Structure prediction request, 121 residues.
Amino acid sequence: MPHDIEDLLDTWARWAAYRADSGLGFSRTTTLGRTIDIGPVAAAIRGNYGPRTIRGNETAERLDRAIAQLPDQLKAVVILAYLSRDSRKQCAAKLSISYWTFWSRLKHAKAILAGRLDLTA
Prediction:
């Protein structure tokens, strides 16, 4: 089992990508799909991002719920950082913020998530 927030977020990203087809070979609208369709910021801010309902990895599901509860600015950064194929600098540009602001928000989001999941940083 992953033991730190970075490992958990990497696991969550793989889980989210795998679940894009529910593991059954047919497509459905997911966070990743909405992110691709309308953009990551819109998917996060419009409230289209929320926990998934199909059972799977319990830890990833807990993290998914915790991410959904983040403030919009932090949620958008986490979604872009882990579900986008862009570099962190490109992600920052998409949000019209500096790389350092992006990095700071991501660090803050990770601290909040680690606290909500009772992890020691």
